[in-house]
Amino acid sequence: MVSDALCAFTRTQKILVLSPDPTLARLFDAAFTPAEAEVTIQSQGRYAVETLFTDPPDMLVVDAALADIPGPTLVTMVKSENVYRQLPVALIMDEAALGTDIDWCAVEVDELLTRPLTSAMLRARVTLALARATRSLDANPLTKLPGNTSIIGRIQDLIDRKQDFALAYADLDYFKSFNDKYGFSRGDEVLMMTARIIVNTVRSVGGPTAFVGHVGGDDFVFILGIDRVEEACKAVVASFDGIVPHFYDADDRDRGFIQSVDREGHRRSFPLMAISIAVVFNRDGRLKHFGEASQTAMTLKKKAKENPKSCYVLDKRQG
Amino acid sequence: MAEDLRTERKGRILAVRDLPTLPKVLEEVSKLVERPDSTTEQVAKLISMDQVLSAKVLKMVNSPVYGFPGRISSIGHALVLLGFNVLRSIIVSTSVFEVMTENMVGLWEHSLGAAMASGAVARMLKLKDAEEYAVAGLLHDLGKVVATVQLPDLKPEIERVVAERDCFYLEAEREVLGFGHDRINAWLADHWKLPANIKEGLSYHHKPHLAQLYPEMACVVHLGDFLVRSFEYGFSGDVGVTYLQPEALKILKIRPADFENLLDELSGQLVELADLRFT
Predict the structure, then answer these.
(1) Which Pfam families match (chain B) (predicted)?
(2) For residue range A59-94, what is the model confidence (pLDDT) as tens digits?
(3) How many contacts, defined by CB atoms under 8 Å, are there between A and B?
(4) Is-contact B81 B62, C-beta < 8 A?
């Protein structure tokens, strides 16, 4: 673990500052140690654009008083590029200029730094903006659950600490045909429902340290103590099966299946959705790497999928 | 009634923030939720005995915040989806009836009885998800509670009209408020994004034959309301028994023999219910 990195960041954060102000360098030096943040200051906006697009920083700080390009224009250039939308951007302004007409909803900045600046305030604001970006970057946009980076981080951390745990991978059977027939917004409703069932069940069974993540689409992950996982799986399966029929139209629900088009383009019937869960155990530090866990889980999931009904499969070799 | 007065009253109705319930109910639920070994089923069973808490739970789970408005009509499902954390906040945000208790106890009992009767009818007819019929039965007079809380000065007026004219509470509401609790129910159901089956049960329980989407739901609640009145359990605001729409029995295909069985079963259950004391 890198102990001198800024809060939870595992590596030095790159901060690009665009400003003609010579005093900023001193302020940043006082605010961050070199291990925490590598700060580059450029006085011209134009030259910075190329760097920005080829070697993007972790955070961009733009002075509104930039000489060649207006700060907000530069921010819009960067933010309109989808891969940089999540890049945290701070705007530096004179406090006195705040009263002027600025359309804050149109300016895509994430943080505002006003002169007079102090290094303490600079450190606090910049760190918060970086932390905020990390949180929102990895949250699933639909369910707001932690995404892949957090999931992998959590699992690898438990493996490194040789802690016993059960890792469950859950996904839905026939979700695609539901989505195809009813449209993606109805599909999203099902994903939100699934997320809430898993979160509430796993927390109530596994306590506050239990973890739930959303890999994406209809794939979810949860982690809890080995002795509690089967109880959680049973409860998730029971709740899912009880609730999911309510997400179908009444006639499909009564029929017990839907008509949709399969991958080959043929019309066929699909059963109501079910949830499949594959559980991998880490006992006595057996797992060395996250990849082993996910690979075992994928093999097990195929087994769980053979059953069209909701079910869970435990990794027998260690279970 | 002037249209703007009606609109203003509707606005006041929908602005309802806090629906109070009986102190004892709230106390019981709070105790159960704080116990570490309580199960969702136990809590759901208790919540299902109180129309205010049930309405709040359904309102919450069907709110667009959670991403599936209008989908959940069962208290058990709602609790699984909300989690105990949200449930605790619902309990904290519920106040108790200090005044008007006597009247509210009567309505509380009437609602509980109607829930039980509606559930029993649905089970007898082997309708799917009988619990949802019980929920609609429980909530069928919610509009009366909301009107009492939001338009408190008009409550004595309604009661005066009932006494003077010897008419039904619903008719008096229409005269004094400009609309009945069935209409209030429909507004609330829309506003809170309750599922369509619950909405029809709540808004058509006095005219079940007019329900379009879920006539069975409306008819079951109508019958449940009628039955609990005939057993004189609780107090709905009316002294007598309302008219039973023959169409409701026709729609539900209930034969006279079924009806007798139902009455037998209900009388037993109501005796048990009468032992419950929540005051």
Answers:
(1) HDOD
(2) 999 998 888 888 888 888 888 877 788 899 999 998
(3) 48
(4) no
SS3 A91: strand
Whether chain B has a CB inside 8 Å of the CB on A5: the answer is no
- Kindly provide the b/e burial profile for residues B269-278, where b requires at least 16 CB atoms within 10 angstroms of the residue's own CB: bbeebeeeeb
Closest partner residue to A192 (CB to CB) among B40, B67, B195 is B67
Nearest-CB residue to B81 (from A193, A204, A254)? A193
Indicate whether B145 belongs to any domain. yes
Amino acid code (one letter) for B63: S
Query: Which homologous superfamily is A148-314 in?
Result: Reverse transcriptase/Diguanylate cyclase domain (3.30.70.270)
* pTM (2 d.p.): 0.85
Please state the separation of Cα A239 from the chain's center in Å: 25
**Residues B117, B119, B120, B125: what is their CA dihedral angle, to the nearest 10 degrees?**
130
Q: Do B77 and A243 touch (CB under 8 A)?
A: yes
Looking at chain B, which residue has its C-alpha nearest residue A235? B80
Summary mean pLDDT of chain B: 91
The ipTM is 0.89
Asked if residue B220 lies in contact with residue B132, where contact means CB atoms within 8 angstroms, the answer is: no
With an 8 Å Cβ cutoff, the interface of chain B facing chain A consists of: 40, 66-68, 71-73, 76-77, 80-84, 128, 195
**Each residue of B227-273: pLDDT tens digit?**
999 888 888 888 777 788 999 999 999 988 888 888 888 888 888 87
